[in-house]
Amino acid sequence: MLYPQENLYRNLTKLDGMWRFFADREGNGEAKGLPGGLPKEARDIAVPASWNEQYSDLFHFHGKGWYERIFFAPLDWDSRPVWLRFGAVSGVCKVWVNETLVLEHTGNALPFEARIDNVLHFGQENRLIVLADSTLDPWSLPPASLEGRQEGRVGFASSYPNVTYDFFPYGGIQRSVWLYTAPANRIEDITVKTDVQGTAGIIRFTLKTTAICKGKVIASVGDQVCEVSLDGVEARGDLRIPDAKLWDIGQPNLYAVNFVLETDESKDCYRLDCGIRTVKVDGNRFLLNGKPVFFKGFGKHEDYSILGKGYNDAIVVKDFGLMRWIGANSFRTSHYPYDEQILSMADRHGVLVIGETPFVGLNERMYRPDILEKAKGVIAEMIARDKNHPSIVMWSLANEPNCESTEAEQFFKGMAETARSLDDTRPITYVAHLEPENNVGYPYYDVVCINKYYGWYVGAGLIDETLDEFKACMDRFYQKFGKPMIVTEFGADAIAGMHCDPPQMFSEEYQNEMVAKQFEAMCEKDYCIGAHVWAFADFKTCQSISRIIVNRKGVFTREREPKMVAHTLHRLWNEKN
Ligand code: GCB
């Protein structure tokens, strides 16, 4: 799905800002006629942002949130097709424009859109109503539930809210809302794949139109032009760039390719930033443009106080600055696809991204054919949205699943086949926390990613004593699967400002020493091709006896101040290529 863009044939306007909000605690808003307008108790709310930290009584509201926004549809947009697009809304979402239901979507982190000009009043005000039903559902992807309070158990099982993952289930319209025009028969989609032939770069494109048409497609960048005829809904071509500058780590060479669609009835264009690069897993190595890569970086979250999971440009700018300073070359979009602007930023900064699905905490009861079908749909949505980003070099299809049974194997095989059929250019992985024999999915994947907390959840307080266990664990995975490995999570909680000599758990010294020693242990293993510290910054999670307001494994605080370990990583990572 193409990101909205303004050009000669397309206009857009953002509907971000102050909306009205109503928390439907009885859950019967639809029957009460809320699609026609919110009740007078509705209050101001900012979009994009989660609702939970905007008002304290909404903090633990995980139900049906209703939003309203009155917007003006310009008169000169009359008789032009108009789309309404949501970057992401939590849970099960329904959208009404002037009381007509125009959109329904399920999921927290991917966009959806609909053509709405047939219900718009041009040159007048229009009423937009959004229902974001964030009710925690044990069968959703990811699974979550408010039920099952469990006493006396340690860890997430006894957290509130009781979800199967370690981050707060924020709700709301968390990414931008757009209204845009484009020709009726528009450039519906573009897929680019790149290759290198000698010193030339090849940008192979497939362009899809909305309707069957006759005409031509012209792709150009500078003096290089590729014109192909179109008869149907799809045109393919190769744009050749002589002496191409490859996209690489810290060398974000991008070619702004202009795609023009010319048919008898309409014209459209779209500019896409393309990075020419190759990625490949070869034996124990991960090759970018033929050169081995060592992934240095983090698992991250979209998370900030007050905003919750709401997208914010300033935070993205700050985070990329910190990643550059510390010497990171990569991050994982743990545990869901991030806002598209973050991926574009990674494209522009030459940062590698492991793009992850929202499938965190999958368990054995989920491995049913109907849930696999749903999962395949989400993988398809993610790849459709993100396939053109050069920064994305691998897909991670799940985080820490229980993956032991024949059903699990079929599920993971099915997901792998879907991802490969939709994208034959990128390796795939999933992220494991259990032992090799409890990971029946790996034979179908290219890279092994493990999350290991020696010296924390295993061998609490023992940094030196658990180092050999950690190394032995890495070896077990390599012996069983013979694939390159990234340690996608390791780390310790540290409360900023808490100091201790000798280092003890929760002090900055402990986190610092553990991360440094484990990083060095990984560097001893040739099959280990990356180290991602958990986590980039402290982040909000559910309440439990093991969390002090936030998860404190951040190398930076939630406000992005460095802890002691940040300075150590800055040194280690700037030394290691
Ligand atoms: C994990 C999870 C991550 C948690 C982390 C922790 O293994 O993948 O979501 O936040 O551990 O801090 O426990």
Description:
This protein is 18% helix and 33% strand. The chain is an alpha/beta fold. The strands form six sheets. It has an eight-stranded parallel barrel with strand order 19-20-21-22-23-24-25-26, surrounded by four helices. Helix 3 (369-386) runs parallel beside helix 4 (406-422) and helix 6 (508-523) packs parallel to helix 7 (564-575). The structure holds (2S,3S,4S,5R)-3,4,5-trihydroxy-6-oxo-oxane-2-carboxylic acid.
Topology, element by element:
Layout: E1 11-14, E2 17-24, E3 43-47, E4 64-73, E5 82-86, E6 92-97, E7 100-106, E8 112-115, E9 124-133, E10 177-181, E11 187-197, E12 200-221, E13 224-241, E14 255-263, E15 267-274, E16 279-282, E17 285-288, E18 291-292, E19 295-299, H1 313-326, E20 330-332, H2 340-349, E21 352-356, H3 369-386, E22 392-399, H4 406-422, E23 428-432, E24 447-451, H5 467-481, E25 485-489, H6 508-523, E26 528-534, E27 539-540, E28 550-551, H7 564-575
Parallel strand pairs: 19-20, 19-26, 20-21, 21-22, 22-23, 23-24, 24-25, 25-26
Antiparallel strand pairs: 1-10, 2-3, 2-4, 4-9, 5-8, 5-10, 6-7, 6-9, 11-12, 12-13, 12-14, 14-15, 16-17, 17-18, 27-28
Helix pairs in contact: 1-2, 3-4, 5-6, 6-7
